[in-house]
Amino acid sequence: MHFMVAILISATAPCLGGAVYDSLADFPKSMTADYDYIIVGGGTAGSTVAHRLAEDNETSVLVIEAGGMHTESLNLKVPAWYAREFNTHLDWNYISVPQSGLNNRTLPYPRGHVLGGSSCFSGMAITRGGTENWDRIAEVTGDKGWSWESLLPYMFKNEKLLSPMDHHNTTGQVIPSVHGHDGLVGVTPPSYPSPLDIKVVNTAKEFKEEFPYTQDMNSGNEIGIGFQLSTIRNGVHENSATAYLGPGFIKAHKIDVLLNTRVTRMVPDASYPGHKGLQFRTVEAANDKLPSYPNRINLTVRREIILSSGAINTPQLLLLSGVGDSKDLATLNLTTVLHNPFVGAHLADHPGVTLSWFVNETFSNDTAAALAEWKEKKTGPLTITNTNMRGHFRFSRRVGEEYKKRFGKDTPGGKDSAHYEIVFLHNSASTTRATFGMFVTLLNTQSYGTINFLAKEEDVFVLREGVRAALRFIQGKAWTGYLLDPVAPQPEFDTTDGDIDAWIRTNAASMRHPLGSAAMTKVVDSELRLKGAKGIRVVDASVFPLVPSAHTMTPVYIIAEKAAALIMKDWDREN
């Protein structure tokens, strides 16, 4: 009797212990229908959702990632070197179409083609956005679950606030009570002081009406200048894969990761013909490294397909699966399975421009010594990016009235939302001399489309006011004798509006924050389920219905933590 019970327990107990497969060639063909959830994309959102679902030992998860393993690159570990993998095999290497708002220039569009996705390519800034950002999303979706207050538990669940590696006193730089202390993503204040820090702080004190200092930009009040928190753990760049898909977790749970494999489409279930009852339970996949993707296989899921391929690839996959505007699909000889004209049509981003000067400072370029220190102690200048401080700001009342008079509407965002951001950059230009720069970012773009930078004149207006604000900032006493000549031609204090606008259109670049291409209310519902079909949920930056005044990595983590809870709640309710 005891022997029979033991056999029954053994047979019915979940078989824990996942694996990482380097390609489809290594993946057991016997496992193509073994999973409760298939997650398409192991990036910022996909890794997060995968971990949370697999925490339930009864649940099996497969993550399919087009790229390879993140651990192969030193550049993705050293915080100061994150951008060195742009335009490499770890990058999707996208290029935008010519942008009419940028004098028909094309822009490089780096996206992470690697486990961890664009969290590996991120500048690591922790910016949640303000309370009003999330409350507006709750209002637009009609779902209070997207309000700031409702999302706070997920913000805390994502973060683990850590001490900086130099162990300096962080009083005044961060409010510990507004951060998580038991989450999975390590976050820390700057571990290495920049000579700019004190200058920026003193200027904020001098011009406190326009440029107030704030102790923590992630408290819900985003307005003001503060120290940047970054996704850095013990001096090493933390990405979603290191935080959520570590080898120890995979080994202990029913989660498999299939690398170098591209999902080519989702296949509708043949037993549900027509639009009524449309359901997806199958993904078609192929080796990402082989041209034309031969030898495709189908993998079938028991519960849901979770599409987490990012704001570029998610709408692409929906279109390839026959979900999109029927006219566009017909031009590509694709059969329409579900007509939705909003798929891929609502994309937005944060454009910005850089002002940069040579400075009266000794330039240190001893990379070998810095790397040796980082390897031995995980301290020194390589533990930070080229910024320790940033600020979010609003128009003055006068400028707000001018905006309303010119464009016939209130300024974008709400009454407490920032209009533009200034990032303070140490050694902002690739020169052999020390430089200081300010990257001025448009936070609430009104230009939507596929990629459609500065299509709206009101966006140029906002960005111009941000440039003027930056030029006012350097009139502070701290900059006297420090700033020398501009690195390149750029606006000055008395430059005309028209000349600034022309300079912006010639020089603006992307902050690499694409979002909104499969937005809530238009493509997915407020629980992120594909509208008009069953079996697909979208979890990534494409679901934002509004542009947050934040760098998108942290908001995507928040969405992913929330989404995992929604998915588990749905399954619990059904069973």
UniProtKB/TrEMBL annotation:
The keyword Amino-acid biosynthesis does not apply. Residues 1-17 form the signal peptide. The keyword Signal applies. PROSITE patterns: GMC_OXRED_2 (PS00624). One of its GO terms (molecular function) is flavin adenine dinucleotide binding. It holds the Pfam family GMC_oxred_C. InterPro entries: FAD/NAD-bd_sf, GMC_OxRdtase, GMC_OxRdtase_N, GMC_OxRtase_C. The active site is at 513 (proton donor), 551 (proton acceptor). Residues 310-324 form the Glucose-methanol-choline oxidoreductase N-terminal domain. It comes from the Eukaryota. FAD binds at residues 114, 263. SUPFAM superfamilies: FAD-linked reductases, C-terminal domain, FAD/NAD(P)-binding domain. Keywords: FAD, Flavoprotein, Signal. Its cofactor is FAD. PANTHER family: CHOLINE DEHYDROGENASE, MITOCHONDRIAL (PTHR11552:SF147), GLUCOSE-METHANOL-CHOLINE GMC OXIDOREDUCTASE (PTHR11552). Belongs to the GMC oxidoreductase family. This is Glucose-methanol-choline oxidoreductase N-terminal domain-containing protein.
